[in-house]
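Sanity check record (used in CI):
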Amino acid sequence: MSLAQEMFAIAPAMGKANLSAGQLKLLTGKARWIFRVGEAGFPTVPTIAITRAAWDELQAERTRKDTRLRTHWVACLFKLVSRDGSPPQLVVRTSASSHNGGLAPAKLGIAAPAAPEDAVDPTRPLAKAIKQAFESYGFSGRTWTGQRQDDDRGRQIVLVQALASGDVEQFLTRNATSGVLGPAPLGGSPLPRLPAGVVSLIDLLDAKAGRHMACLVAIDRGQVTFVSARPVQASAGAELTAAVDRVERKVWTPQGAVSRVDANRLALMLHPRLKSADEVTPIAMGLGVSPGAASGIITFNPDDAARLRARGKHCILVVNETGPADIEGMKAATGILTARGGMSSHAGVIARITGKPCVAGVRSLSVDTSEMVCRIGEREFRAGDRLTIDGTDGAVYLGTLPLAQPQIGGAISKLLGWSDASRTIAVRTNAETVESAQTALSFGAEGIGLARSEHMFFSPERMVALRRMILSEDEDARARALAGLVDFQTGDYSALFSAMRGLPVTVRLFDPPLHEFLPRTDEEVEETALSLGVAVRALRLRLERIAEINPMLGHRGVRLAITYPEILQMQMQAVLAGARAASERQADPVTVEVMVPFVSTATEVSWIRERAMAMLDNSGLTRSDRVRFSFGTMIELPRACLRAGDIAGMVDFISFGTNDLTQTTFGISRDDAPAFLAAYQRKGVYERDPFVTIDEKGVGEMIAIAIARGKAANPRLKIGICGEHAGDPASLQFFAGLGVDYVSCSPYRVPVARLTLAQASA
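Expected output for Pyruvate, phosphate dikinase:
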């Protein structure tokens, strides 16, 4: 396309614009909507566009005393002249793809050039305004790879318009909070008096743009002339309401609405959020590991959090890091703030399961539990002071800020119903409690893809039983401890199976990294010693003997079941007894999937399968159609990915635990990673946090290899994803291309997964 073609009329004063394919590609920002509205026949202010590249060449030509391109430019300007032949006053506007406060404001009332050279001479009003508009875009930037963006800079455009007669008014095409079709007031200003003609403009622009638009019109003797429009940010709820309304108005199809709604923003509708944080500055920033906002009284103790909740008080649990013993306090707190940890830390995982906002990895935070005080930077806070946290972006604010509560109505149900019509991948949830399972079911979960059995022991009395088992010195003592656990788990599984009403429940066998479940503080050690009936000194010696240098790669998962077979026996007894109990009181059959975690070899899987299937045969459940049983394994280690073909022949399904697989593939501790990952991203070493969005080239390739080798060995093999990446839209798009059968995510991410996977199937 020649530079002469980069000066063209978008909305000529007479006739219609006739743009080439190349010129259509140049339309961005306001230019796009001016062309679309004028093309549709609505009265539009005459407008022409010029690219930076064409303008630069006009300036170069001027210094060469050449006039060929200038002649074409002057001819373009004449397309702003109406039938009466009088040159109008002019307006110069920028036309960026996104709104930017640094761009030059519209320059109004510019006299038309008196001579051809006035159209390009930078000392003359029109040329000067065009030059300033281009300069406000700034100079060419660089991409994250360091490449210059000269081409984008050369294609920036500036608009020259005829000055519209009459009063110029602004309004929104839809209400930015409710999503109701406008006209609606803009920026807190009262809605101006508008003639009926704006209704057809709003309908037209809403259909063409499919977004909330700030619209500028001129009103002269009751007649409306379109001047320009730009997209504006609306609330997530408003965008959803608008999408459903466009379907009902037959502007979009249901699948068109599904494809256009931002799945990332959908998550915001499920949690409280800050009404406005524009006028306040965070006192600290961490990692937003569980979305939503919360305000409350600072408390440093899980028990105090429970007491405050019982009194109807909102509180923020502030700790250095959380562990299994803190679970009741985490449930009681309105929000959680930790100094350490990341996306897949204990605090992040539990917060997402329970739907609590959580900010983790705040490096400027330190907590002194003995003094009941914390410091955030130079500020000191005590119990009873107030904070607000935003688990969406990781911000921490002083005091109590106003919150907007979630409103989940008919619009989201309609959208997700349309999503399910095209989705081919099932969405399950990660849940261990009936409460979490019911939350997930209300969001449309199609089963449980990960029930972490060790999470069922987070209450104080159960923690004592679990610690007794871990700390037992011999097999007899361990067997006595396990006897008490069977009763606990049988009831848990029975209730969970009943809650899921025949939907599949994947029970992961014990995978407790021991350090997470053992007492840590002096107070906890003393309490544990008392509950176990042993001396504190003896308990400390035992803790020293079983302490691991790197527990995340230590005595956990399948290794625990092989070295302590009685643990496997206890779990299988509880699962089978729970399945039997549930099947006897419900019409739906119970669908149980037992999953072995942290395997690295096929022989480990074979060892567990042989014993698990023997217990199943002895239970008599195989002779009944009331319980459907399958056996699988969780793939979390690179070696398991590479040897998936060996493993696949022994299992009905494999499910990828992407948290640990990311950790072991990168060789990065997921809990320590926040200390350097932010710097890596700032410096362009990593484009994204691999614990938030799946690393497609490394971890993703390991998954793809495992699926290919597993399917080759066992064509009936079912494939699942049960790591935290299963709730991330970008990761879900990648998984959808791998041919997986289901994903499993935290309950509050189920709607996000349903929408994203429908978009991936389109």
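The longest helix spans residues 475-500. If this sentence no longer matches the regenerated tokens, the check is flagged for review.
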